[in-house]
């Protein structure tokens, strides 16, 4: 429960939203588990500085756990980093083909996905060069399994295909480790988390590739071969050519039947977020299991995005007296694991939309949520620039 105690509480979120300046925000955060993480920042504080420092603190905490770990925990933590490595590879190649500066791209890579040969990816001009550079990296085995011979030219579409095939191979390997390499209750909880991850990718990939030139067979090659949607529903989704067809298929799946129902104002991303936080809440109810580390990391990542979003609203003077946050703390509070929201009810709590998250924290979205299977290759913009962020709603 020590990991859970480090999450921001509802009252602390309320205090953050009442800050008038970023200096006020810094002061409020200093009384939380973030402590003096901004103490070495001189001059005016920017939103990007807060985001980078908060992400850096999370990385240091994760790395501390990793440094103390022995197998099988060490192997489990290694698996977690592989997803970030795949996203960093995609970001490096995309930035290179669009002529972005090497140092600028490296600065935007997620620290959990860093590996020795990552900077050399600026020299990758085709798939073979990519494989040669990554030969000594942990991702090499996934390149071998992904059959990437068809992606000879490294353009935006092929980079997305490569990323999604790598992610498929990675998730399947991770799932095999969780199911057969761990004992109960670790294996049960982690397979549930990974099955949700696989299903989320399946839904997002098939939804975002409707207007692409990919055939049903090519889409199937991108979809993980496990989860509640596999195999029958994933095959149907790959063949679906309209959003309505995808919706009709998903409505037959018990766990996801309401995900396309936006009558209550929720987007599909909101439903994904709520489902993930519920799974994290369940993981926190177990003691001395690997799953609590996964739940803690996912919850802390959302926390960093929330803090960044609040900071961006303050920086742009876009405060709304009726604006509240939905945080990982909300869903954990449902299980009685954190402080309650006081006078806030579930109806008055609005979720951060995926659009707002992308504009407020594009770097972390690329790194943390690349697993969503989104078919786009937009380079992140500087979060500290007001022109790069939409008005918070």
From TrEMBL:
This protein's GO CC annotations: proton-transporting V-type ATPase, V0 domain
Transmembrane segment boundaries: none
Subunit and partners: V-ATPase is a heteromultimeric enzyme made up of two complexes: the ATP-hydrolytic V1 complex and the proton translocation V0 complex.
Region (Disordered): 367-393
SUPFAM superfamilies according to UniProt: V-type ATP synthase subunit C
Keyword Ion transport (UniProt): yes
Keyword Transcription set for record: no
Similarity comment: family membership: Belongs to the V-ATPase V0D/AC39 subunit family.
Keyword annotations from UniProtKB, A to Z: Hydrogen ion transport, Ion transport, Transport
Name listed for the protein in its UniProt record: V-type proton ATPase subunit
InterPro entries tied to this protein: ATPase_csu/dsu_sf, ATPase_V0-cplx_csu/dsu, ATPase_V0-cplx_dsu, V-type_ATPase_csu/dsu, V-type_ATPase_csu/dsu_dom_3
Recorded GO MF terms: proton-transporting ATPase activity, rotational mechanism
Record field: compositional bias (Polar residues): 384-393
């Amino acid at each position: 429960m020590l990991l859970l105690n480090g999450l921001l509480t509802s009252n602390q979120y309320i205090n953050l939203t009442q800050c008038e300046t970023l200096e006020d925000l810094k002061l409020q955060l200093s009384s939380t588990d973030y402590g003096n993480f901004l103490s070495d920042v001189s001059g005016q504080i920017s939103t990007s500085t807060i985001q980078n420092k908060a992400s850096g603190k999370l990385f240091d905490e994760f790395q501390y756990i990793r440094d103390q770990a022995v197998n099988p925990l060490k192997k489990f933590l290694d698996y977690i980093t592989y997803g970030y490595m795949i996203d960093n590879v995609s970001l490096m190649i995309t930035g290179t083909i669009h002529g972005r500066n090497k140092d600028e791209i490296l600065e935007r890579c997620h620290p959990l996905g860093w590996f020795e040969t990552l900077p050399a990816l600026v020299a990758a001009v085709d798939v073979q060069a990519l494989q040669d550079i990554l030969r000594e990296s942990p991702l090499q085995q996934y390149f071998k399994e992904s059959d990437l011979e068809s992606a000879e030219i490294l353009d935006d579409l092929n980079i997305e295909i490569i990323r999604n095939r790598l992610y498929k191979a990675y998730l399947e390997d991770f799932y095999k480790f969780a199911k057969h390499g761990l004992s109960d209750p670790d294996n049960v909880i982690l397979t549930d988390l990974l099955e949700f991850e696989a299903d989320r990718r399946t839904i997002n990939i098939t939804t975002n590739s409707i207007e692409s030139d990919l055939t049903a067979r090519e889409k199937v090659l991108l979809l993980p071969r496990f989860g509640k949607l596999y195999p029958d529903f994933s095959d149907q989704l790959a063949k679906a050519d309209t959003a309505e067809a995808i919706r009709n298929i998903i409505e037959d799946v018990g766990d996801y039947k309401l995900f396309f129902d936006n009558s209550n104002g929720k987007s599909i991303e909101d439903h994904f977020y709520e489902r993930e936080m519920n799974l994290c809440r369940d993981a926190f109810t177990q003691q001395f299991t690997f799953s609590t580390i996964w739940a803690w990391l996912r919850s802390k990542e959302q926390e960093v995005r929330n803090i960044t979003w609040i900071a961006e609203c303050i920086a742009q003077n876009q405060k709304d007296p009726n604006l509240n946050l939905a945080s990982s703390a909300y869903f954990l509070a449902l299980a009685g694991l954190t402080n309650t929201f006081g006078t806030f009810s579930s109806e008055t709590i609005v979720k951060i939309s995926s659009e707002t998250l992308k504009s407020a924290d594009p770097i972390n979205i690329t790194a943390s949520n690349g697993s969503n299977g989104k078919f786009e290759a937009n380079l992140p913009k500087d979060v500290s620039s007001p022109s790069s962020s939409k008005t918070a709603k």
